[in-house]
Write a structure and sequence with these properties.
The chain is mostly helical. About 65% of the residues lie in helices and about 5% in strands. A two-stranded antiparallel sheet has the order 1-2.
């Protein structure tokens, strides 16, 4: 991994590549030095295709008696191709299973996230409603206190009127009382 790369522009600079990060950084710098040059981006590797099914061999041979010396190599090639085909089918099935499992897991995670989101949303709305309810109760209590202030003022004004009337009555009684004192009272002997 430790390569030494020399730049053509600066011969005095010698950069030692110690990590993959340094190597990637140097490659990118090299690309950015010539921005008009097209960059080769490789295509994805193609998936392997499944081999053809084996030809049916009517004469089965192997190490059985009567087989010629060249037949074993033919048998071995057929066997190798069949094992490779079975391995390919097994790998394809495993890949399909993993893909299905991954998709199922994605759906489960999305559902779980949606449930959590819905639960938190409900909690937020409940909190918001309770906050609005408290605020409306507070406003009502303030308006009630304003009404009670109005009622208190009305009650005070009524009380003042009553007090004034009472004071007038008392004053009238006092006046009549003083008038009575001024007038001589005749005492009749009985």
């Amino acid at each position: 991994m430790s390569e030494i790369i020399e730049d053509a522009d600066s011969e005095s600079k010698v950069r030692a590549v110690k990590t993959a990060y340094d190597l990637q950084r140097l490659k990118l710098e090299k690309l950015f030095k010539q921005p008009d040059k097209p960059v080769f981006i490789p295509d994805r590797p193609k998936e392997r295709k499944m081999p053809k099914p084996p030809e049916f061999i009517r004469n089965t041979w192997g190490s059985s008696a009567g087989a010629g010396s060249g037949d074993f190599h033919v048998y071995r090639g057929v066997r190798r191709r069949e094992y490779a085909r079975q391995k390919f089918l097994d790998e394809k099935e495993a890949k399909t299973t993993k893909d299905d499992e991954y998709q199922r897991k994605l759906v489960e995670n999305a559902n779980a996230a949606e449930e959590r989101t819905a639960k938190k949303r409900a909690k937020r709305l409940k909190k918001k409603k309770s906050k609005q309810k408290k605020k409306s109760q507070h406003v009502e209590s303030e308006s009630e206190s304003e009404h009670s202030d109005d009622e208190t003022e009305a009650a005070c004004s009524d009380a003042k009127k009553i007090c004034e009337e009472t004071n007038e009555e008392l004053q009238a009684q006092k006046d009549t009382h003083t008038n009575l004192e001024k007038t001589p009272v005749e005492i009749k002997p009985s």
